[in-house]
Design a protein that fits this description.
With about 450 residues, this protein is an alpha/beta fold. About 55% of the residues lie in helices and about 10% in strands. It has helices at about 5-15, 25-40, 45-60, 70-85, 110-125, 145-155, 165-180, 200-210, 225-240, 255-265, 285-295, 300-310, 310-325, 330-340, 345-350, 355-360, 370-375, 380-385, 390-400, 405-425, 430-440; strands at about 100-105, 130-135, 155-160, 185-190, 215-220, 245, 270-275, 280-285. The protein has an 8-stranded mixed β-sheet, with helices on both faces. The relative contact order is 0.10.
Length: about 450
Amino acid sequence: MFENLTDRLERSFKTLKGEGRITELNIAESLKDVRRALLDADVNFRIAKDFTNRVKEKALGQDVLTAVKPGQQIVKIVHHELVQLMGGEQVDVDLKGNPAIVLMAGLQGSGKTTFSAKLAKFLKTKRSLNPLLVACDVYRPAAIEQLKVLGEQIKVSIYTEEGNTNPVKIAENAVNFATQNGYNLVIVDTAGRLAIDEEMMREITNIKNAIKPQEILFVVDAMTGQDAVNTAKEFNEQLDFDGVILTKLDGDTRGGAALSIRTVVNKPIKFVGTGEKMTALDIFYPERMADRILGMGDIVSLVERAQEQFDVEEAKKLQKKIAKNQFNFNDFIKQIQQIKKMGNLKDLAAMIPGVGKALKNIDIDDDAFKNIEAIIFSMTHKERENPMLLNGSRRKRIARGSGNDIQEVNKLIKQFDKTRKMMKMLSSGKNISRAMNAMKMKK
């Protein structure tokens, strides 16, 4: 995400590298590149121009800081302005009603139905709410079926009325049903169209007036760039929505929608979709997003994702096993499965400062652990519990069973052995340099 923009901004800041101080002349050249980078990212011209004017004004108005180089100073100012451009601070959804009603709006193909299910799962898991998903798209073939399948997947109830073609009535009946049956959250998935039309707008406005939602969320495909911003503007004029959801942000290497939409509609981005999995949903934090755009990583989000997956009690048990040198392949496979649950591997790596740039041209497949899992699952329970049993004949059998060469099996076992020894050394209080030296000697 934002790959192209990150590269272009980095090149722009190089103009000031080696300069003793920021001057009208050298900052003009640097900011011309920044403006081009924003325009190439599909940011509206006026927004890009206003942005660079503010950066210039602040940079020239700054007191000269001898401890901070001009390049670093301009990055700091650009970071601050990017945060402000995207809203300044995170804005939560309003869930005060009983039931709280969330109305989803957007064009067809924006990912509205999928995101409705993601949001239901998120609020069920994070806020302990009991959601009801309502199928009000009575036009698109298989739309109701899609919501049913997703509902089963996330274990959330779906409200449908087969044969009823009046979305307003379905929405009203769903809210009454939720009130009578103990649901404290209603998420209404409405119909989209391939383009904005009066009929669609009239219908969703009627639904809004009938059920009076606390929250109206506009769902838009981030990859459509400036078109996404224009669509948001038209929807907002009709609906006066409360927040924006940017879907498919993981596929958006430019970032124009994320950078422009707040300024145009003056409504906060509340969530972003970052993949197809039902867990691929992130709260939108402007500051963290600015960090990512400038290649600074996003350690806070990475730690939060890790905390969601790693159980404290399990971690304590694992620590004891490591200290006793009892870490085995069952423990290893558990760690892999927890990492996989955290999301796309390249996206995770990019959250570590400096790593995203290093991995720019490297393709990290989400099936990167596939061979490792195949090898481990081809071992018997005893072999996974006690890796010392893995002699030559057992390794050959594991290679055949997993569809790998014997060399791949040997490589994994050797790497596992090195990892186990290093973990044991670290857990027993030895310093890291000794552990690293031991690793080097084994190569």
